[in-house]
């Protein structure tokens, strides 16, 4: 259950249900996320993780329940620069005609508006974000020439350029090797601690999340668990869940 001794709730779901057609994909989900939390979301394929993330981002509207961001009903929320999103499988291939720096600058476009060229502040934020993900030396490289792991860092930088308070990541480590994955998790932990950046992270890597996340959610249409990751690992129903879900542990 949500850890109620945290202060400063920045995202709240109250009794959310959602269906694309007739079947309910998300059913009666409630949770609270607090400033600085590192939330890991796990669950079986098709369990509704990506759907839940899109509901939190306002990309999908639930048929039932209330979503609040920064204590405001999501339907009235406008401050989207406070939110970053790294979607599932968005790698560029070698033909994509943009440099690393240009891809990160795209994250500023929401602030730039049409027909405004990037100014010094935009450039400064881009360089700052590239530094944070340790990709400065690659700034003039073509994005498509980078490895999957390097591209991921660039996508994080793109999400960081509006100086968000909260970043959502949907399986960003899918399809990269173990070493790259480990470096990526180390980067996330650093951003979470140093910037007090709130992270909401979908992953199958339960063993890593269990050590890094402050909250773990298990979603299989209903939210079967939400709370301390270590308690989840000790829980009696954990082995039963893992047996069915193909989660790495
Ligand atoms: N755009 C869509 N239209 C209809 N059904 C969808 C759509 N996206 C996902 N679904 C269905 O909703 C369920 C949950 O999917 P999803 O949220 O992607 O799960 P997960 O991310 O946990 O794998 C699945 O049964 C999936 O087939
Ligand atoms: Mg998904």
Secondary-structure topology with pairs:
Elements: E1 9-19, E2 24-34, E3 38-42, H1 49-56, E4 64-69, E5 72-73, E6 83-86, H2 100-106, H3 109-112, H4 120-132, H5 148-160, E7 166-170, H6 178-194, E8 198-202, H7 206-212, E9 215-220, E10 222-227, H8 229-234, H9 238-245
Parallel strand pairs: 3-8, 3-9, 6-7, 7-8
Antiparallel strand pairs: 1-2, 1-4, 4-5, 9-10
Helix pairs in contact: 2-5, 4-5
Adenosine-5'-diphosphate is lined by residues 20, 25, 43, 45-51.
Q: Unreliable stretches, pLDDT < 50, 5 or more residues?
A: 1-5
Radius of gyration: 18 Å
What is the CATH architecture term?
3-Layer(aba) Sandwich
**Structural shape:** globular
Distinct small molecules bound, one entry per kind: adenosine-5'-diphosphate, magnesium ion
* CATH fold description: Rossmann fold
How much strand?
Answer: 15-25%
Rounded mean pLDDT score:
87
Major sheet strand order = 6-7-8-3-9-10
Specify the CATH homologous superfamily: P-loop containing nucleotide triphosphate hydrolases
Distance between the termini: 23 Å
**What is the domain total for the residues?**
1
Briefly note the structural class of the backbone. alpha/beta
Tally of strands = 10
SS field, number of helical segments = 9
CATH class annotation: Alpha Beta
Name the descriptors.
single chain; 249 residues; alpha/beta; Rossmann fold; four-stranded antiparallel sheet; 33% helix; 24% strand; disordered N terminus; binds adenosine-5'-diphosphate; binds magnesium ion
């Amino acid at each position: 259950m949500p850890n109620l001794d945290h202060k400063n709730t920045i995202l709240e779901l109250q009794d959310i249900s959602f269906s694309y057609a007739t079947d309910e994909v998300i059913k009666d989900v409630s949770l609270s996320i607090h400033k600085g939390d590192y939330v890991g979301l796990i669950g079986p394929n098709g369990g509704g993780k990506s759907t839940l993330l899109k509901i939190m981002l306002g990309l999908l509207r639930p048929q039932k329940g209330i979503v609040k961001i920064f204590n405001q009903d999501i339907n009235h929320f406008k401050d989207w620069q406070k939110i970053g999103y790294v979607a599932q499988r968005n790698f560029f291939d070698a033909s994509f005609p943009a440099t690393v720096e240009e891809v990160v600058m795209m994250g500023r476009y929401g602030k730039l508006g049409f027909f405004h060229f990037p100014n010094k502040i935009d450039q400064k934020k881009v360089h700052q974000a590239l530094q944070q993900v340790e990709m400065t030396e690659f700034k003039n490289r073509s994005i498509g020439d980078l490895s999957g792991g390097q591209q991921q860092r660039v996508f994080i930088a793109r999400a960081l350029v509006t100086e968000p308070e909260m970043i959502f990541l949907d399986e960003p480590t899918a399809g990269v090797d173990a070493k790259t994955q480990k470096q990526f998790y180390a980067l996330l932990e650093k951003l979470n601690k140093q910037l007090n950046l709130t992270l909401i992270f979908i992953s199958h890597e339960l063993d890593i999340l269990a050590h890094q996340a402050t909250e773990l959610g298990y979603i299989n249409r209903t939210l079967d668990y939400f709370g301390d990751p270590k308690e989840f690992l000790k829980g009696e129903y954990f082995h039963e869940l893992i047996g069915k879900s193909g989660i790495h542990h």
